Amino acid sequence: MKKFNSIIPVESDGLFTPEVRLWSLEKYKLVGGYCDIFTTGMKDKWDQLVYIDLFAGAGYAKIIETGKIYRSSALIAMSIPHPFSKYILCEEDSQRYEALKARVEKYFPNLNVSIIQGDSNKIIDKIFHEIPPFRKGNTLLPFCFVDPYSLHLSFKTVETLGGKILMDFLILQALHMDGNRNLAKYLKEENERIANYLGNPDWRDGYFKNCTEYTPNFVKFLADQYQTKMTQLGYLPEKRMFQIRSNEKNLPLYYLAFYSKHPRGIDYYKHIENRISPQLKLEL
Fold this sequence. Notes:
The chain has 284 residues and is of the alpha/beta class. The protein has helices at residues 24-42, 73-78, 94-107, 124-128, 155-162, 175-180, 183-186, 193-198, 203-209, 211-214, 218-232, 263-273, and strands at residues 9-10, 19-20, 48-53, 60-63, 69-71, 86-91, 113-117, 140-146, 168-173, 240-245, 252-259. It has one domain: 3-Layer(aba) Sandwich (Rossmann fold). Strands 7-6-3-8-9-11-10 form a seven-stranded mixed sheet. It has a four-stranded mixed sheet with strand order 1-5-4-2. The longest helix is centred in the first third of the chain and has 19 residues, at 24-42. The model is unreliable at 278-284 (pLDDT under 50).
């Protein structure tokens, strides 16, 4: 069987298309590959498979370095050979939302899609209620992709979904491009960004208490703390973090962190990782 290719070039359709950097293609490979293996492996084991995208974007993205346009996460997830039973897409920006809505209606009118406009951190209860009802004899397994541009992600958002349902997560963690870069700002008491991100208003106590280990490495502190919080929700303790680096100076930018409550999810993810640039993998 021919492997699904997550990198899907398209022509301009006249709708709003945000610009992204070349390294975004690595992200598309990972999320598309996991969607493919997820639905292929689970389609006969669960009655309903649901894709959730909390920062869905416009559906298309233009690479700054090349000028080429590709389908981005939400439309990649709709392009897989075995589609999900339902798609739940959230996007706050009006231009992106309208473009995404138009593209879904044009290219995927046959799929069951809910598109919600708003900040997913503020409307997570509304998103949760879009998940189809499930019960014995009508089983449900969602996969949630979380792609914020920064650490603007409340842990309550993740907890609302993953704390109640068996659900896999792939989360972009902007630990370098936001966390490490803005450490001095975040250490100020009035700044609540990290408190919301970790779901822990007392995070500074832990950071300074373990200063020997963490003061030189704020990235490791954030990664370890997030892993602990996810483990408390029932996710497996194995840390899977795929590092994305810049093309020009090879600087670390962010991680794509995977979380599952079942060993099979981890196995699937490892399989996809092994298809993609092994040099980018890094486990903190």
